[in-house]
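Students often ask why we bother encoding 3D structure as a string. The short answer is that it lets us treat folding as translation between two languages. Here is a chain of 303 residues written in the first language.
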Amino acid sequence: MARRRRAGLMTAAAISVGALALGGCGTSAASSGSSGGSASSGHSTGSGNAAALQLVTPGTLTVGIAAIYPPYTFLKPGTKTPTGFEIDVTNAIAAKLGLKPSYANVAFSSLIPGVESKRFDVATTGIGDTAVREKQDAFIDYEQSHPALLVAKKSVASIHGLADLCGRSVAVVKGSQPEPIIQAQAAKCTREGKAKLNILLYPDHPTAVLAVQSGRADATSADLATVAYQAKQLSNQFVFVDAKTPSSPLGFVASKQNPALQNALLNALKTLYSNDTMKKIYTKWGVPQMLLPAPGINLATKQ
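And here it is in the second language, the structure alphabet:
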């Protein structure tokens, strides 16, 4: 019975991410065409300055993603083809730069190290820009968001925000945007003499969701768009609760030692803003509020 119940939970977890958990930590690469525009002579790398971008593979923008985070980056059901609003943006940027996008699907925790080791040119999957991260890496920001809570229906009557997590167990992805926020709340619970907030760390979001489905956790925390998407997909199991924390910038991670690529990405984004491509992409995915007013580099320390 226990084996059958766990199998059912794992199936539900797969459904919660659009049957995408398989291969989520693999290293399969997939190439995709542009979804937001064609190559522009104004930003095309051309043969003259392609070398200046210091790409892993000349003519190719190698992108690390964790394709288990809909609607940011995920795989089309039954395929190895990445999709999501960040994929649409990346394809459009690659087209503007005259590059071919190639995606490497890895664990979320491997994204930033992959850029630092020059395995990827850039990484993307709702990666939050922070002052700490900026010490080691460069962020080309164009999104904004904040963590939310995906709460089990049995617990929703008593969980309305972060303050209600004292005495609860919360599943969090290690190294994710919500982790320090949940840790700060746990410290606050202790400081105020309230019941302990038990933090359960997991390597990826589907596993964290499974922890809630199995009853090991009362809630999980992830980015606003991810939580809203999953609450809608599995409305019979979960409820969306806004953590009501300040928004922070998100964007591409690139090497701090590659300013040419940083500026190329930024200029391509500025063009996609000015011709309304970005607005069209985010409206298509139902999250136009996530766009920053304008893109920028390392905005976490410039706000």
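Translate back mentally: The longest strand covers residues 137-145. Keep this in mind for the problem set.
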